[in-house]
Design brief:
219 residues, TIM Barrel, 8-stranded parallel β-barrel, 54% helix, globular, binds erythose-4-phosphate, pentose shunt, EC 2.2.1.2, transferase
């Protein structure tokens, strides 16, 4: 399973990259705003800064909701760097944009997916990735991981190449559950990735190994 980090924070992206497990980055307009990145030029150069850190795909979201606007923005975004994947919302015009970009060989990530039907449409339109938001579904007492499983089944039934990118991941158990059901990618915060490496028995065991080593080498 690929690990993407879901942030526009350069420090966190660098940290995840240095950990050696980072396969890409996803951003959205809210994450950009959270970092205080506003205005088209600043946003475009921030995407470039992200691409300069990571080796994998970087999702950059359009903010137009009409087809022409999405095409214009998407074509501009892919000029920034070959790592850019155009993130398109799951709306009617977005489906048309997915088809347009897929015919042009431009990679896309269809975002704001909350149902299997939406994921089926996105795959038929040629999306490279679909992003079902599992955390936001869990927030409303709906089974986010169940949706990932359902989409994977549908894609396998017909051999769709669209990758299932589990988004809105909030904690380490989400990551483990995504891996159990076979999500192609998960995107989440650095804290959830780092939480995977923690275990109290590891800390206790290491403390004892180091203490025993120190005893044997203290002369
Ligand atoms: C997807 O790519 C989105 O950026 C993201 O995962 C949404 O997560 P949130 O529900 O934590 O805002």
């Amino acid at each position: 399973m690929k690990f993407f980090i879901d942030t526009a924070n350069l420090k966190e992206i660098k940290e995840a990259h240095e950990l050696g497990v980072l396969d890409g980055v996803t951003t959205n307009p809210s994450l950009m705003a959270k970092e205080g990145i506003t205005g088209k030029d600043n946003i475009l150069s921030h995407y470039k800064a992200i691409c300069d850190i990571v080796d994998g795909d970087v999702s950059a979201e359009v903010v137009s909701v009409d087809l022409e606007g999405m095409i214009r923005e998407g074509e501009e975004l892919v000029e920034i760097d070959s790592k850019i994947v155009v993130k398109i919302p799951m709306i009617k015009e977005g489906v048309k944009a997915l088809k347009y970009f897929s015919q042009k060989g431009i990679r896309t990530n269809c975002t704001l997916i909350f149902s299997a039907g939406q994921a089926l449409l996105a795959a038929k339109a040629g999306a490279t990735y679909v992003s079902p938001f599992i955390g936001r579904l869990d927030d409303i007492s709906t089974d986010g991981i169940g949706l990932i499983e359902q989409i994977l089944t549908i894609y396998r039934n017909y051999g769709y190449e669209t990758q299932v990118l589990a988004a809105s991941v909030r904690h380490p158990m989400h990551i483990i559950q995504c891996a159990e059901v076979g999500a192609d990618v998960m995107t989440g915060p650095l804290s959830a990735m780092e939480a995977l490496l923690k275990h109290p028995l590891t800390d206790i065991g290491l403390e004892k190994f180091l203490a025993d080593y120190a005893k044997g080498n203290s002369k």
